[in-house]
Amino acid sequence: MRIFSVFFWLLAMAVSIMAAVTVDKPHVIVHDGVERTYYLHVPDGLEPGAPLVMVLHGLGGHADKLRYRTEMNRLASEHGFAVVDPQGLDYKPTSSHWNAGFAFSDVDDVGFLTSLVGQLDARHNLSPAKSFAVGISNGGYMAYHVACYAPEVLSGIAVISGTMAGGDWGDCDPQVPTSVLPIQGTKDPMIRWEGARHWMSGFSMTPAVPDLVAFWRAQHGTEGAVFEERGAYSVARYLAGGRDAVWFVALRGFGHDLPNERNAGFSAVALAWEFFSQVQQGVPTRLRSRGR
C-alpha cells in the first residue's frame, strides 16, 4: 500500500511540474493591423512585480519550438519570472524574421515588442523595470535594435550568436544604456568575430565582437572588471557604479549555435537569467534616469 502511495505521489508531482512549464496555444495581439502571435508562461503563484523575459528566435525560427529548446519556462518556474516567446513575421513564404532596421523589411517589430511588453506588464502585474530579452542570431540583432531605439523597454539583453546591424552600429546612441551580455563563439561562420559585410544589413559592416563590447562598456562608463573562470567557459563582468553593467562570454572554437550542457558544457540561457538577476539590483537608478 505504501509503495502505491509513493508512486501516485511521484506521478502527481510530475504532472504538476509539467503543467507549470507547458504552454500549448499561442496568444494573439493586433499590431499595425496584423495579427501577431506569442507564447506566454506565467508560473502559478507568481509574485506581483515579477520580471518578464522575452525570447527572440533566429532567422526562420519558430517560437513554439524554441520555447522547449531553451528550457526558459523551467527556469521561470524555479526563479519566479514570466516568459514570452513572440513570433516574427515572414518576409518571404518560408522564413520568419525580426526587422532590426533592415532594408528588405517594413515590419514594425520595435513597435510590436514595445506594445507586447507593455500589455503583459499591465495584464499580469509584472514590473516594467524588470523586462529583459534573450536574442538568438537574428533575435540578437533585434535585441540590440530595441536597446538602441527603444531603451526604455528593456533593462537588459543577452545576445547569443548575434550582433548589431550595420545601421545600428553607425547610429546607436541611447539616452539610457541597456545592460548587455554578448555570448559569442570565435568560429561562428555567420556572425564573424572580426565583423563582416552582411546582406541583412544591406552589406554594411557589422562590428568586430571586441569593438561591440567596448561600445556598450563606453555607453555605461564601466570602471572596473571581474574575470571569472567557470570550468567550461569564462565570463568578464564589467561594472559601473558598483553594479553589473556588461558581461561578456567568448567561446573559443564555438560556432553558430545555442550553447547548452551538451555542446558547450553550460547553459547560455541559465547564464542569461543569472545576468538579469544581477542587473535588477541597479533598476532604481535606471528608473529615475528614465523618468518612470
**Helical content band:** 25-40%
Number of helices: 9
How many domains make up the 3D coordinates? 1
Radius of gyration: 19 Å
Strand content: 25-35%
Oligomer: single chain
Q: Determine the structural class based on helices, strands and strand pairing.
A: alpha/beta
Q: Please state how the strands of the largest beta sheet are arranged side by side.
A: 1-2-4-3-7-8-9-12-11-10
* CATH homology superfamily: Alpha/Beta hydrolase fold, catalytic domain
Name of the level-1 CATH class: Alpha Beta
Mean pLDDT metric: 88
Largest sheet: 10 strands, mixed
How far is the N terminus from the C terminus? 59 Å
> Would you report the number of β strands?
12
Global shape: globular
The CATH level-2 architecture is identified as 3-Layer(aba) Sandwich
Classify the fold: give the CATH topology.
Answer: Rossmann fold
Detail the poorly predicted runs.
Answer: 1-22, 284-292
Order of helices and strands: HEEEHHEEEHEHEHEHEEEHH
Keywords:
single chain; 292 residues; alpha/beta; ten-stranded mixed sheet; 9 helices; disordered N terminus; disordered C terminus
Task: Describe the secondary-structure layout.
Blueprint: H1 2-21, E1 27-31, E2 34-41, E3 50-56, H2 63-70, H3 72-79, E4 82-86, E5 89-92, E6 95-97, H4 109-123, E7 126-136, H5 138-149, E8 156-160, H6 166-171, E9 179-185, H7 209-220, E10 224-229, E11 234-240, E12 243-251, H8 268-279, H9 283-290
Parallel strand pairs: 3-4, 3-7, 7-8, 8-9, 9-12
Antiparallel strand pairs: 1-2, 2-4, 5-6, 10-11, 11-12
